[in-house]
Fold:
Amino acid sequence: RVDRRQRQMCIRDRSDTVVAKKWFERIKVPHTYVILISILIIMTILTHIIPAGQYERVKEPISGKMVVVPGSFQFIDTKAPGFFDIFLSLQKGYVDAANIMFLIIFAYGFVYVLVKNGTMDASLGALVRLVGKHVQLMIPIVMLVLGVLSSTMGIFEEVYGLFPVFVGIAIALGYDAIVGGAMVYLGVTIGYAAGTFNPYNVVIAQDVAGVTAYSGLGLRIAVFVVFEAAAIFYIMHYAAKIKATPEKSILYGSDPYIIKEKSIEELTSIKMTGRQKVCLLIFFVTLGILLYCTTQLGWYIDEIAAMFLMMMIFAGIASGYSATEICKTFIESTKSMVSSMLIVGFTRGILIVMKDGMISDTIVYYLVSLLSETSKYISAFGMLFLQNIIKFFITGSSSQATITMPIMAPTAELIGLSKQIAVLAYQFGNGFAEMFWPTSCALGCGLMGVPIDKWYKFVTPLFVIVLLLEIVFMTIAVTIG
Structure:
């Protein structure tokens, strides 16, 4: 009788599980534009609820950055954005983000030429013959290289042009666009967040907080190793799963990039022609120029976009295309990128609404006020989560450092924490939230051509893992003082 009752309970549990699973699968995430326009409307409403305010800012003599004066916050009178401003902000957002939007078009135009003339497939065939069946090792290699460069030199925007390159490579190797995009985006994002010598987040934050530059290096190296390893394992697990069963790809049934997939056997049989060798040389020269000029000559979005446009034309000429064929190929490439490109304008419009409503400083003021009269551990965790929330409203790493650190660092001391804890909380909250908040990751999704709802389905479990690891390292930091 007991066994019968247990079997009935097990059957009922399995039935409930199946029903819950079917209910969950019926839930449809809204279109990317619906999500972003909803956020835009919410932010506009908040400008009428949250009073406008700002901190006084002064120029920091050493770094030259404008930093917040602690205790200087004051409410101000300003006109909150209205209904028409919702649409006006989108127009302003597209204008303001035009350089990034055209970078997306030109970068993919260059890659599209290499795909269309067969250079990409022939190159991948040579790579597969070189590494044999271990093509999955490309994932940790790419992520570690980008992670180290980002952690030490602070590269981030410089990799924008690499998104379509590695998306094309990943798809040609039998993965999907998420694998290719995540290799670049998560590799550089985690490296940036787990900065060791990063001058744009660690050094600025430590300078503003009054902490010795590059102090606490041992803990930050451990952070880099653990977080980068977690991301690499996560992507490799997903890549192996969809390699074995393509139907399990989050993007299954959609094709954000018009690239013909080939099997490993087909790739290894392709021989490279003379024209393709020239195009491959152009490809590596482009990457070399990108690395050198962004790190040594101060190139930014405009120069990178112009370089890709120029190299697209050179690749077309090397392919034997006429001027008309080059133009037609470029037009073909833009068709699959329009949707991704437009996402950037939506995201910038959200930031413009918050800037016009002047609510960012007010939100920081209210959030930091919550930390008073709490224990050390609760305060440390509070700083961590507050920095994650603030990242939604302030996307620039230097901006977040100069706004929050003059407030967070003294607050940490009053509570009995080291200023280094405040720096670590900023470093985690500013950097790792980059992969999740739509105001930050929408640009990455646009560059890799992945709908933001698909990206969330992929990255949310990893983001939860990252949050748990952040809590672990914050606990360690508070314990060791």
User: Anything to note?
Assistant: The chain has 21 helices and four strands. The first strand starts at residue 53 and ends at 54. Residues 54 and 361 are 5 Å apart (CA to CA).
